[in-house]
Design a protein that fits this description.
Elements (H helix, E strand, L loop, with lengths): L11 H11 L3 H8 L3 H12 L6 E6 L5 H9 L3 E7 L2 H11 L4 E5 L12 E7 L8 H11 E12 L4 H23 L2 H13 L3 H11 L1 E3 L3 E3 L4 E8 L8 H11 L3 H12 L7 H20 L3 H17 L5 H21 L3 H83 L4 H16 L3 E7 L5 E7 L7 E2 L8 H9 L3 E3 L17 E9 L2 E10 L7 H34 L1
Parallel strand pairs: 1-2, 1-4, 2-3, 4-5
Antiparallel strand pairs: 5-8, 6-8, 7-8, 9-10, 9-14, 10-11, 12-13, 13-14
Helix pairs in contact: 6-9, 7-8, 9-13, 10-15, 11-12, 11-14, 13-15, 14-15, 15-16, 15-18, 16-18
Length: about 575
């Protein structure tokens, strides 16, 4: 990225108006639209400053002062200054910072109103992409920093990968609508994704910082590359501009180009695992490109291209060891020709220093690219592990659901089996008393409940019935009740509807007539709209009955009503025949 204005960047006045308009809801919208991520991102940027002792910090494009407040709360021995174009943002910021050693002022980051070397550190969060000429702003920051001072830049990056595509979809379609609706300025929140898309890639922005004069560290990748933290340090001693000296170096080397090339190949080939032809091709291309760029003073262009190539090489897994060795070997091969060409020891020292500085910067680019790639792979490994854990949780959940479905299937199979069992055993029984006992036995035997009773109302409205229970609950029959039906059974008769009690200890109507009962279900036997009896189920498990159990019990109840009606008709017919005989 060049030092030219950012393509498509709005004018300063337009930026000021836009942020003035959204200032009242700016902080709330940031929290909401980033799901709180902006808080942790800013915290990481402040941590990257690595402040200690007392000092003075500059917050550029400070907005409402969130970053500056974080800096000063973590480092109360420091003082801070915030600069922003938007006066309404600054008004809100002054309220936040009134108890801290901070001052805010309106200003342009491309023309900072501060003297040279007046700050120990500087930070800019989500503001550098709004600057018309980022390189000018970076140069200004370098000017106002003391030697050894650090600049930290927190900024969005054009997202990549699957998460990047999802984030871009959110950025371009959801955020403008929601942000515009809540802030009253859709234009401002349409500008945000557009500004991210046109901003520099991480590699390009790192190089832009380096061109401004910072010694740049590998950036910190946040949330799968949605945002980055960039760090650059101002050198204790400003690096000299060696471009003119390197032009002289080229002047001394070009006449000896063939000899220089052969000596470089001869020195490198025995140390390389590559075939000699490949070494020759690499040396020829590299030397010619190097001489061509240095001859016209295009040192930064050369380094920018090598930085991009190094980044690409790391992504495909290439080792930098052969390249680093080749750089150092070339320096050694240049020395005899410089000794021959330079007119004085001072000129020779100047040329060797310039060549050595160039080699150091080239090696630094390689090292930075390698560190960045290692950091990227580590983050990817962590994300892969996180996805694997999430997948494992999903599989565990699916397995649990499958087990639950299997249990439900077995439960429903038991219910179907119950209907079949009762139908088979009861259909041929024509004695009412025997029918009730057979029904109770078949239901209890099939489902294994603690206790099952089938009770009916006799002609006097008194309950009589038959029971079946697990071992230890052996009551098989009962005479008439002495009082009106009570308990859960009585409630079924009164309400003419099924009743399910998940925990009998909490039911005021429950009669503790069977030891160990924890839950109960009772279903009415309804004939011609009238309740004629009840099937009562009791279990030693809490919450043992569900809606499927109620449906199955109602189906059994309907069948028993018909079977009981037929048995009674048959009994009456037998009595009538006996009386007639």
């Amino acid at each position: 990225m060049s030092g030219a204005p950012t393509p498509g960047a709005p004018e300063k006045a337009a930026v000021r108006r836009m942020f003035d308009q959204i200032a009242p809801r700016y902080d709330v919208l940031n929290r909401l639209l980033s799901a709180g991520s902006d808080v942790s991102w800013r915290r990481k940027a402040v941590q990257a400053l690595e402040l200690n002792g007392a000092g003075r910090v500059l917050d550029l494009c400070c907005g409402t002062g969130d970053v500056l407040r974080e800096v000063l709360e973590r480092n109360p021995q420091h003082t801070g200054v915030g600069v922003d174009l938007s006066e309404r943002m600054l008004e809100l910021g002054r309220g936040k910072l009134r108890r801290l050693a901070a001052s805010l002022c309106s200003g342009d980051v491309e023309r900072l109103p501060f003297r040279d070397a007046s700050f120990d550190a500087a930070v800019v969060a989500f503001g550098i992409r709004n600057v018309g000429e980022p390189r000018v702003a970076l140069t200004e920051v370098l000017r106002v920093l003391r030697p050894g001072g650090r600049l930290v830049v927190l900024e969005f990056a054009p997202p990549e990968g699957v998460l990047g595509r999802l984030f871009r979809l959110y950025f371009e379609h959801v955020l403008p609508r929601v942000g515009g609706w809540l802030s009253g300025s859709r234009e401002a929140y349409a500008y945000l994704p557009a500004s991210v898309q046109r901003f520099a890639t991480p590699d390009s922005f790192r190089f832009l910082m380096a061109r401004a004069g910072f010694r740049v560290r590998p950036p910190q990748r946040l949330t799968a590359g949605i945002a980055y933290v960039y760090c650059g340090d101002k050198l204790m001693i400003p690096a000299p501009d060696h471009a003119e000296t390197l032009k002289k170096v080229v002047g001394y080397l070009v006449p000896h180009r063939e000899a220089l090339l052969e000596s470089w190949i001869s020195a490198l080939a025995p140390l390389s695992e590559a075939p000699e032809e490949e070494v020759r091709r690499y040396c020829t291309t590299t030397l010619d490109r190097l001489l061509e760029r240095l001859a016209v003073g295009a040192v930064e262009s050369l380094l920018e291209n090598e930085a991009a190539a190094a980044g690409e090489a790391t992504r495909v897994g290439h080792s930098f060891k052969p390249i680093a060795l080749a750089i150092r070997m070339l320096d050694r091969c240049c020395v005899p020709h410089l000794v021959e060409g330079c007119e004085s020891r001072e000129e020779l020292a100047e040329c060797l220093l310039a060549l050595d500085e160039l080699a150091d910067r080239r090696l630094e680019l390689l090292l930075g690219a390698q560190e960045e790639e290692m950091a990227r792979r580590l983050i990817e490994a962590e994300e892969t592990a996180s996805r694997a854990q999430e997948r494992s949780r999903q599989l565990t959940g699916l397995n649990t659901e499958l087990q639950r479905a299997q249990a439900q299937s077995r439960h429903r199979a038991d219910q179907i089996g119950l209907l079949n069992e009762v139908t088979k055993r009861v259909a041929a029984v024509l004695d009412p008393e025997e029918l009730l006992q057979s029904a109770a036995d078949s239901i209890q035997g099939r489902l294994g409940h603690t206790y099952v009773a089938v009770v009916v109302l006799d002609d006097d409205g008194v309950l009589v019935g038959r029971w079946a229970g697990r071992e230890g609950v052996g009551r098989r029959s009962s005479g008439p009740t002495q009082n009106p039906a009570g308990g859960v059974i009585g409630r079924v008769i009164r309400k003419r509807a099924p009743q399910v009690v998940a925990d009998v200890s909490r039911d005021p109507d429950y009669h503790a007539d069977v030891a160990g009962t924890c839950s109960e279900m009772a279903v009415p036997l309804i004939d011609a709209g009238e309740v004629v009896g009840v099937i009562d189920f009791q279990s030693e498990r809490e919450d043992a009955f569900d809606l499927d159990d109620v449906a199955a019990a109602e189906a059994v109840a309907e069948f028993l009503v018909v079977a009981l009606r037929n048995a009674r008709l048959y009994a009456e017919a037998r009595r009538a025949r006996g009386a007639a005989g």
